[in-house]
Amino acid sequence: MRRRLLASTIVAGAMLGSLPAAAQVANDPTGASAGPLEGQAPVANADGDNKAAQGGDIVVTGSRIRSPNLEATSPVTGVVNFVMDTDFEGFRLDGQYSMFNHNNRGGSGILPALNSSSPYGAPAGYPTGMATDGGTIDVTAAFGTSFDDGRGHITAYGGYRKINPVLQANRDYSSCSLSANAAGAANPFACAGSATSPQGSFVAFDGTGADFTSTFFQPGQGGTFAAGRTPFNFNPLNYYQRPDERYTAGFFANYEVSNAIKPYAEFMFMDDRTVAQIAPSGNFGNTTSINCDNPLLGAAQQAFVCRRDNLLVANSPANQLTGQRVVGQAIYNPSVFGDTTAAQFFDPTTGAAYNRGYLQTFRRNVEGGARQDDLQHTSFRGVIGSRGDLGSAWSYDAYYQYGRTNFAETYLNDFSITRLGRALDVVSNPNGGAPVCRSVLTGEDPNCVPYNVFSLNSVTPESVAYLSTPGFQRGVVSEQVASASFSGQLGEYGIKSPWASEGLGLAIGAEYRKEALDLKTDQAFQTGDLSGQGAATLPVSGSFNVKEVFGELRVPVVFDSFIYNLSFTGGYRYSSYKTSAGRGFSTDTYKIEGEFAPIRDIRFRGGYNRAVRAPTVQDLFAPQRVALVGNSDPCAGRVLTAADQGCLLQGLRIGQTVAENPSSQYNGLIGGSPNLVPEVADTYTAGVVIQPSFLPRFALTVDYFDIKVKGAVTTIGTDTILNACNTTLNTEFCGLVNRDAAGSLWLTPQGYVTNTTKNIGGLATRGIDVGASYSYPLGGLGSLGFNFNGTWLDRLVTDTGVSGSYDCVGLFGTTCLQPTPEWRHNARISFSSPSGVGLSVRWRYFGNVKIDATDPNSNLNNPGASGPAPGGVPRPGLAELGVQSYFDLAMTFRVNDAYTFRLGANNLLDREPPLTGSQACPGVVCNGNTFPGVYDALGRYIYAGVTLNL
């Protein structure tokens, strides 16, 4: 049987992007998924399960698409399809152990970067030689039996899986964060990193006249500041594969009371716990000023920070943490503002006046260890229903389904921004003169401990303990479904074509469904007080319900007559939605399909399908917030001129230099909208199936597809918005760019690109799928099998609805994101013998892709100095990701009917993944300098298993 299982009952994906480790990233053969980059909260990545989906496996495929088919949801991009053999009898035990194996041999031209004099060279260490890790144990058991003379049947199952982690430190190509060098450099890559370093990096204003700008400094010897910064390599502690432990259990039962009454029940349970890990937290520029009476500052540091030009001005005297304007800005650029009076602050205890100098602090908490995100999803789903025959012509199926996922998150080793401000606001204690937090003297926070980041190796365990703050989230996703459908064979009433042996088939039904989300976050998450999150995580609560009626009619016109087959199928579904925000909307979906086979050997098929995807609860109700979602800023890293019209339209000025983010991460304002409406998709398909009688056991299928989505529920993309503003000067796009007082899109939350979810112009894809199979008997030796499946992609277009459209076929990068080759295929040759020995070799092929930044399309083209193609010339390491071929080997050994052993290796030749640099490594799909959702990121995958049938 096939029973649909809503993704939200297994996947708490609506919970602000967190996915359980049970849901594997699509096309990810290694279990490593795109994770967060520097400064972002880690979200759950893939589970590491490398087994192909088989009957009974759970497959997560994405967001919901409504179709008029009898099943309430199409499995194209929106459901979890669960296939279970409910007639299974006996006992089956299956166990498998798998692991990754890779020889760190310094390929892809990365050794010069690893061996350079940077902090990531040989002294820092990188792996060499063979690495074997990521071991996974997976055990399942199933039991089935019939009872009451076969009228009833029950199948029960249970499973346990444990996955060991793989750190990016364990692969040479991911052991440092790569940055692509510009054209003309000796090597394609260099090791880069974050400005938030263990030594500490500080931004203060310096210079005079037009050269007055914010500049990086770091602590020097003897209480001084030295120009520049030392980047921090944040890769080694990040996970390629997370540790994970999962328990599953369930049963399927049915009983035949009569032909008309056959009740059934189903229950499924899953408990999954995983820990995501990224580099240590710290002060990610969360504090932007320092008090000039601070005894932690050396004399030279105090003199530099507190000189008149760098003092905060009087028009924002209370803004200690996000104050941006300084006296020098008013002096050297009075068009911005004209207040040249330094602000005076007063100590609440002594009444003494003091000034504050601008000093944005970036300091890594290496003393406190990596940030860890403990994620747990506990899911269950129950179904009760009945099916049966209502005479010879009609049958029915009616059921009620309830599913729920409980979500718990505990975030560890992060810093409190509020406490950072207090721990840096230090004065001399009147009793003895020792440094003390001002908040201790005022009684505001008696537990505060000074955080000395101005001298090397001066951070104390007590200050780290004070600053460390956990974060907690708890949530529930639930779904209820009540459905009833009736199927009729109208041929029983003589309603059929005179040229067909079968009559018309009709199905009608109705369904009610309600989905709800309730996510609660603690104060640390809600207020954005956790420094390593990049933004606040706000509570979400909302629901919607939908009432539907549907029908489908199949008309065999000719069957086994003067032509072999001619038939048509049509379907219709009406859906009425209502959200908890009081909005309502309705949709109509329908389809028409046809098959024509003049002879048995060849069959033509085609169809048209109108489908819709309604906004999810998260699409509708996610709070709007600023988060690190961008990958580039075309206006950063260079002196702006009059030719930079797009940058000037964003409020920047000629002669200004905007600081670029060393981690290539920029702010976007993201979130949902209750005004969203369903997106609409029109799908056209045409194909042919050839099974020639003169060549038995051969089949060839060729299918054309053309899908157009209008009003797509998605975001435009921060990089697309910036590129479009700079290349087209479109005021609508430029108006979405909000720069802070320093012109930055990352230094403070006040700088961001508005990129909320909306109904944009649309999406479209078109291509051809090709499949072929052939089996050749070898007599008593067994048989050979050949299988081939390939896809030629002609177009993958996004219509922004404002600045036109762009096509991502054959491209990757900050706008197109994940590599999308024009051609990809799987080819397999297999041998099976009567003795139970099987052997197969598979070839997985991915075509080459090029960087999107050099495409002439204005939505893609990005010639910015800090981007993937400065001046329109691609950085050599990013210009192209070449053709990738992987070879997989699988063997099976059957010992009588009880035991079946299997052994195999994917990526048998241990091919390394193609690498990219930070300028073209979008965090949503890129992790460890590559794209694990497309390429094998961890090397060779080896597995061995056994199945016992009793």
Structural summary, described in words:
The chain is mainly beta and 950 residues long. It contains 12 helices and 51 strands. The chain has a 22-stranded antiparallel barrel. A hairpin with a 6-residue loop joins strand 24 (426-428) and strand 25.
Could you write a compact summary of the structure shown?
By secondary structure, the chain is mainly β.
Which key terms come to mind for this protein?
elongated, 51 strands, 950 residues, 5-stranded antiparallel beta sheet
Query: What portion of residues belong to β-strands?
Result: 35-45%
Number of helices: 12
Number of strands: 51
Low-confidence stretches at least 5 residues in length (pLDDT < 50)? 1-82, 119-123, 317-323
**CA-to-CA gap between the ends?**
23 Å
Major sheet characteristics: 22 strands, antiparallel, barrel
Shape: elongated
Secondary structure: elements and pairs:
Elements lengths: L1 E4 L1 H4 L47 E3 L19 E4 L6 E15 L6 H4 L14 E19 L4 E12 L2 E2 L10 E3 L8 E3 L9 E6 L6 E7 L5 E3 L11 E3 L2 E12 L6 E19 L1 E3 L4 E3 L7 H7 L21 H6 L12 E2 L6 E2 L1 E3 L1 E5 L5 E21 L3 E22 L1 H8 L1 E3 L6 E3 H5 L18 H7 E22 L15 E17 L1 H4 L13 E20 L5 E15 L4 E16 L2 E12 L3 H5 L3 E6 L14 H5 L16 E5 L8 E12 L7 E13 L2 E2 L3 H11 L2 H4 L2 E2 L13 E3 L3 E2 L2 E16 L5 E17 L5 E3 L3 E3 L3 E4 L2 E10 L4 E10 L2 E3 L28 E2 L2 E12 L3 E8 L33 E10 L1
